[in-house]
From TrEMBL:
Domain (ABC transporter) ranges: 5-252
Family annotation (InterPro entries): AAA+_ATPase, ABC_Ni/Peptide_Import, ABC_transporter-like_ATP-bd, ABC_transporter-like_CS, P-loop_NTPase
GO molecular function list: ATP binding; ATP hydrolysis activity
GO cellular component: plasma membrane
SUPFAM superfamilies in UniProt: P-loop containing nucleoside triphosphate hydrolases
Family assignment from sequence similarity: Belongs to the ABC transporter superfamily.
Biological classification of the source: Bacteria, Bacillati, Bacillota, Clostridia, Lachnospirales
Protein name per UniProt: ABC transporter ATP-binding protein
């Protein structure tokens, strides 16, 4: 299987601070789901933002390569990066709900996000929006499209956000703790939907999460970050059943047991 993304010895720093991401290497194959787990401040968000070239001000990749389909993203100019963003690589942020404009109905925002990447008549746009919302199991897409964000529940907004990100059929989806703002039942549902995205859209997914339980459920590979270092990276079963690092063991031990079992084999 070809790798879609290779991160090679990547170091990222914010001005005047010690490295937020320290010499990290990892690879993701096509259609693979990889979770990056680790406590707050360990560098997870910084790492996936670098993949899209959207580090906050002061943040800089000081060393290494980020190869997307063999091309070093760090050497691309802003125009080429913009072409990739949203079409080949999409990102879902921590709180998608908050990124929706509160004073515009969903339809108008959704259409705008489609028209950034391709021309399409209004009616066709709406058809595509409805199709995508239905795929995310929003049962009344007409109503969702004519709603303002505040009229939708957290889970619904999250689904709208994921549907919007998937409309351009990106090959790589970066999801920054997309479930954190939601209650546990909705979290499980959204994670299940994301798992289906891989089958439907053949997309690889990198999921950033605090939750080792979520990671073990959804992932092919798991990476564990601790203070900027990727202390563990490997196949899901290897990480869960044969963790190498003490920190990984402590995260695994904190996952609650269900019916006497912590992880299904
Ligand atoms: N905009 C910024 N300016 C300066 N330093 C930052 C900035 N964003 C993050 N950092 C620093 O970089 C380090 C890594 O932060 P990052 O947000 O990547 O961690 P994280 O693992 O994603 O945390 P969380 O799970 O809370 O989102 C932290 O020490 C943080 O203080």
């Amino acid at each position: 299987m070809m790798d879609i993304l290779n991160i090679e010895n990547c170091t990222i720093s914010y001005q005047g601070q010690k490295a937020a991401v320290d010499d990290v290497s990892l690879s993701i194959g096509e259609k693979e789901i990889v979770s990056i787990v680790g406590e707050s401040g360990s560098g997870k968000t910084t790492l996936i933002r670098a993949i899209l070239g959207i580090l906050p001000p002061g943040g800089k990749v000081t060393d290494g390569k980020i190869l997307f389909q063999g091309k070093n993203i760090l050497e691309l100019d802003e125009r080429s990066l913009q072409k990739i963003r949203g079409t080949e690589i999409a990102m879902i942020f921590q709180d998608v709900g908050a990124s929706l404009d509160p004073i515009r109905i969903v339809d108008s925002q959704y259409r705008e996000s489609i028209l950034v990447h391709r021309k399409m008549p209004k009616e066709e746009c709406r058809g595509l929006e409805k199709k995508m919302l239905t795929k995310m199991h929003l049962t009344d897409p007409e109503r969702v499209l004519s709603s303002y964000p505040f009229e939708l529940s957290g889970g619904m907004k999250q689904r709208v956000g994921i549907a919007m990100s998937m409309t351009a059929r990106p090959k790589l989806l970066l999801a920054d703790e997309p479930t954190s703002a939601l209650d546990v039942t909705i979290q499980a549902e959204v994670v299940r939907e994301m798992k289906k995205l891989r089958e439907q859209y053949q997309a690889a997914i990198i999921l950033v999460t605090h939750n080792m339980g979520v990671a073990s459920y959804i992932s092919d590979k798991i990476g564990v970050m601790c203070q900027g270092k990727l202390v563990e990276f490997g196949k899901r079963d290897d990480v869960i059943f044969h963790p190498k690092h003490e920190y990984t063991r402590s995260l695994l031990a904190a996952v609650p047991r269900l019916e006497g079992k912590r992880f299904a084999k």
